Amino acid sequence: MLSYLSTFSVIAAVALLIGIALVVLEMFIPGFGLPGISGLILIGLGIFLQAKSLIEAMLLLAAVVALLGIALFIMLLVTKTKGFKQSPIVLSTSIHPEPAADLAYLVGKEGKVLTPLRPAGTADFDGVRLDVVAEAAFVPAETSVRIIKAEGNRIVVRQIFE
């Protein structure tokens, strides 16, 4: 059997195994990418040295991709266990937005539109510029408006007809 194995096939097998190991290492310890890039280069070299035809190269590539997919699946399962504080590729902390200020005190205030509201734009209320949304589809600039609703940070205005 040893006579069947040429020097190139041993080098190819070693390059493939080390390449796969480096890519798996990159899965567990993501960072700069040096192990991953080196692993991909070694996998390519191993396939190039081992494959004698394009079909054989595609089959080897498919096998490597399948192995890496299985490794990724196992890595995700392992990192979800209690032994790991957090997964290297899955965000474990959640981002909670700050609660919006209660702008209900603005309801009833009158001001002037600074930019055309189509339906969103900017209006001035006693020297304070606010982003507002028009109740109607369009309100031209320099029009008087009144705040009719404030939900979260969404301020709805209605045009005042004088």
Structure, explained:
The protein is α+β, with helices and mostly antiparallel strands. It has two domains: 7-79, no CATH class; 104-159, OB fold (Dihydrolipoamide Acetyltransferase, E2P) (Beta Barrel), CATH 2.40.50. Helix content is 40%, strand content 19%. It has helices spanning 7-28, 34-50, 54-79; strands spanning 110-113, 120-125, 128-134, 144-151, 154-159. The radius of gyration is 31 Å and the shape is rod-shaped. It starts with 6 loop residues before the first helix and ends with a strand.
How would you summarize this macromolecular structure in one to three sentences?
The protein has helices at 7-28, 34-50, 54-79; strands spanning 110-113, 120-125, 128-134, 144-151, 154-159.
List keywords for this structure.
single chain; about 160 residues; alpha+beta; OB fold (Dihydrolipoamide Acetyltransferase, E2P); 2 domains; five-stranded mixed β-barrel; 5 strands; about 20% strand; rod-shaped
Mean pLDDT: 83
What is the total domain count? Answer: 2
| Beta-strand content bin | 15-25%
Distance between the amino and carboxyl termini: 99 Å
What would you call the structural class? alpha+beta
Total DSSP helices: 3
Shape: rod-shaped
Strand order of the largest sheet: 1-2-3-5-4
Helicity, as a percent range: 40-55%
Low-confidence stretches: none
- Whole-number radius of gyration? 31 Å
Biggest sheet features: 5 strands, mixed, barrel
Question: Can you lay out the helices and strands and say which pair or pack?
Answer:
Elements: H1 7-28, H2 34-50, H3 54-79, E1 110-113, E2 120-125, E3 128-134, E4 144-151, E5 154-159
Parallel strand pairs: 3-5
Antiparallel strand pairs: 1-2, 1-4, 2-3, 4-5
Helix pairs in contact: 1-2, 1-3, 2-3
